[in-house]
Amino acid sequence: MKQKTRIAALGLALTTVAASFAGTSAKEVTPVEPAATKSLCERIWDIPVLYKNDDNKIISDFRLVGRLHSQYAWVDSDQGTYNDYETRRAWLGFSATMADKKLKIVNRWRMKGIEFEDFDPEINNIFEAYATYAFSPEFNLRAGKVKAAMTREYATSSNKIITVERSAIISKFVADAPWGVDVKGKIDKWSYTAGIYADTYDGRYDQWFGDDAEPFGILRLSYDTSGILMEKSDVALDYGVASRVSGPAGLGNENIVSLSFGGQCGNFGLQTDALSGFGAGEEQYGLVLMPSYDLTDKLQAVFRYQLAYGTDNSLKLQRYERKVTSSGAEDYNAFYGGLNYYICDHKLKLMGGVEYATAGVDDSISDDADAYNGWTFMLAARMHF
């Protein structure tokens, strides 16, 4: 018994000495906790990460990036009917984080042939190809073929919009991703974005500046109102100016103004946007109200109301409404209700929505006072990585 006691005492003494050399006392030695088990979603979305090493100052992260948005729509209107499935977005590319995490390079290509009945994928054209350099956490510079964020809905990634399609008036004001340069920064509660871009490009794969490209500019100012209006919220003012209304990547009017609000308070969310476009001999203005409510951790209900007016029938209808009529509109009203089910947050979700819309035309231009009157039913599955 004494022999066993001496052995135990010797073991305790050795443990104490070893701990003292390590700079801690014996009582501070604790077992190492096992690493937290990753969820199924986290394990699946780790697959596109081809390399990651935070200690590597040259390149710390390299991964595949992409999105696949599929949806079905059925239109039943006075102007006709339409129903079809489409791959709304199929993009594939890569991103790399380099230079001690200060430089990020992103390239996304649009794909075509991503259809169940005719699966023959190939590159269609470039969506984005840019580099961002963070001079500080509060200031970065971006250059390349980029998405020029204009209005709150368009500034929100298509991965994270909470309606199947954006508001109809948005499609009037924005276009394809242009080539350009912009800066983003933050000063206290203020955030800003300022950019200058080319309104057209040439080529299918290179899509460089067109010979006849002209510049347009965008300025966005936002103020963090968290704790004042809602738990988390901000107010943003966007202004876009263009020398002309032309080109696949240009603005839809010479001047565009958007005053918007976005906030979250518990399960309740709210987005609003008051928009106006003027110049080029026409005007458009509208209002978008979009409340949402999280029914559970996975299920969200969304409502949206749109009201818009445009001179000379300059308003565009919603994407699927344009499948049954090519008419523009003088006035537009639409009510949307939908449910979103988040399987892996926005990375994998199911969406459903129904929208009722009416649109009229200027009687002096057309004898038909109804440009559109009908329902659109939409189902969507969205994934990105």
Explain this structure.
The protein folds into two domains: 1-30; 31-384, Porin (Beta Barrel), CATH 2.40.160.10. The chain is built from four helices and 19 strands. With 385 residues, the chain is mostly beta strands. The strands form two sheets. A 16-stranded antiparallel beta barrel has the order 2-3-4-5-6-7-8-11-12-13-14-15-16-17-18-19. It is globular, with a radius of gyration of 27 Å. It starts with a helix and ends with a strand. It has helices at 2-21, 40-44, 152-155, 168-173, and strands at 49-52, 59-77, 80-98, 103-114, 119-136, 139-145, 179-187, 190-198, 201-202, 208-209, 215-224, 232-242, 255-265, 268-279, 282-294, 299-310, 331-342, 348-360, 370-384. This is Phosphate-selective porin O and P. Pfam families: Porin_O_P (PF07396).
Task: Provide tags for this entry.
mainly beta; 385 residues; 9% helix; single chain; Porin; two-stranded antiparallel ribbon; 19 strands; 2 domains; disordered N terminus; 16-stranded antiparallel barrel; globular
